[in-house]
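Researcher: We're teaching a course module on how sequence relates to structure. For the next exercise, students receive a sequence and then see the predicted structure as tokens, so they can try to spot secondary structure elements on their own. Here is the exercise chain.
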Amino acid sequence: MKLLAYAALGGAIGASGRYLVGIIALRTFGIGFPYGTFFVNIIGALLMGMVVEALALRFQGSAELRTLLATGILGGFTTFSAFSLELANMIERDQWSTAILYSCASVVFSVCALFIGLYLGRYLWGATV
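Model: And here is the predicted structure for the students to work with:
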């Protein structure tokens, strides 16, 4: 339960950060491209790498700190950072076929699932498909 509380607290912080970046990007660049999501995903992946390495190599971070920072804050900021870490781990272990399959399948299935969700939501809540 204690780790869940750390994940929840960090998630609230990360989600708030994501929201703020999205607002700033929208006001700065407009709606022509999803700059907020683009920046959040890249920044989140960069920070995930830095945090994981810092906790492992420099600070010997506790389970509570890892949960707060990696799962909570960065997971709330962007789940793309967790995906990037998993993919990087596969590549570093020379699991190239798994890494390629995982990355391609994650993108394709996630986008497909999103469209299915959009159409289901439209169907269930009355919008025309």
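Model: If you want an answer key for the exercise: The chain has two domains: 2-93, 96-129. The mean pLDDT is 90.
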